[in-house]
Amino acid sequence: MIQKPKGTLDLYGLEGKTYEYVLSYMSSFLNMYNYNYVKIPTFETSELYKRGVGESSDIVNKEMYDFLDKSDRSMTLRPEFTAGVVRMFLENKLYSKETNKFYYYGSAFRYERPQSGRYREFTQFGVEAFGIKNPYFDAEVISIAYKMLTDLGLKDLVVQINSLGDNSSREAYKNALREYFKPKLDNLCEDCKNRFNTNVLRILDCKVDKDNEILKNAPKTLNYLSEESKEYFDILKTALNVLEVPFEENTSLVRGLDYYTDTVFEIVYKDSNLGNASVVCGGGRYDNLVNELGKINIPAIGFSIGVERLVLLLNEANVKPIDNKVDIYVMNLGQDKYAYEIVDMLRNSGFITETDYLNKSMKAQFKLVDDLNPDYILIIGEDEAKGNYVTVKDNLTKENKKVEFDELIEYLSMI
RNA sequence: GCGGUAUUGGUGAAGUGGUAACACGGUAGAUUGUGGCUCUAUUAUGCGUGGGUUCGAUUCCCACAUACCGCCCCA
Fold it and tell me: Can you tell me the ipTM of this complex?
């Protein structure tokens, strides 16, 4: 047997249905906020992600699905969407409009060790908004993510926020951390010693050392924010209160991608057994990325939701998508011509219709009816075909009624 | 990339160095045009894949694959 590649996922049955439901639900939700759907390539030149996501991030360092194409160009399967959306935004000169609000969904790829809620090919649904820098807007973006997830049926979501500050405050903070940690390195775990060189911020996130006094007493981001960033963060918190989004400040929330500035946030599902996979949404502001890739100063903010994780969490929370129940079952008892004509007619009139294609016995077909639980069963046998009528059985009252072929649609529409 | 656990039919699973319980589901019949209950029959020449040990392996050994857990990291 050929098995699916490591870290990929088959979705079918209830989970497949939930997956589809979740995507269409979130799409229509975003349309309400006047966000527009964008589609970008599944792979891009590797250079884009190296510059966009950042060479110091693990995503670029060890998780990229890159390959040489037949002309020896280095390509990478998208590990996330933001860099690609920014590229699209620049390449098509969409900045001629002052503001742009986009949403997207599709597969992303990271070469990781898989676990539940963590795959090598996974689906992201997210938004990116360009041209607006306003804490009230940041709050709205966070509230969109929060509301969508809540509306879908997840309770006990926690929104965690933090501010990384603008470039200068971020650098000042990093330097402060380096100075603070340098004499204490021997007391930190091995990973943290590496992080000291690659990305000091991440030391704050360490799980091994999380109870370590050294971390608890480390300098806090907020003390290194510029006046401007500090005020921005304060207004953001006010705005979140106005929009009734419950949140927690988490000063060790730093995010793993290099491009974030000022506002960062994550949405976590508390009741989950999924451990790290309970982070269902993450995002933040990235005011320097457009300039980094296109030499134009345009502020931007976005977030991304892990759709497979969302499906898992909805499953855990026992949330079921709305089911398209079958309206009518056509019981064909050896009268193919007449029966299939009626099936087609019903579907053309908008009834969700099912029938038997295997010439099963009446008893077997009634068994199928039990699973489908339609509102009505149309019985079509020899008598009906000859007499040009059908027997309509009400599946609730079990009553039968003869209805002429010509009056069938009208009759079914009435009841 | 590192460490650990697991892998038996459509599903949940029991089991043993000598040839795969049980339950659910599926199919057919009892019941030739009215079901959902009940009863009966049937449903893996095969126990992740490939090697090895053995008279004989699903059971022991090795490798690989995949899943899950922890780390790393992230959605």
Answer: 0.81
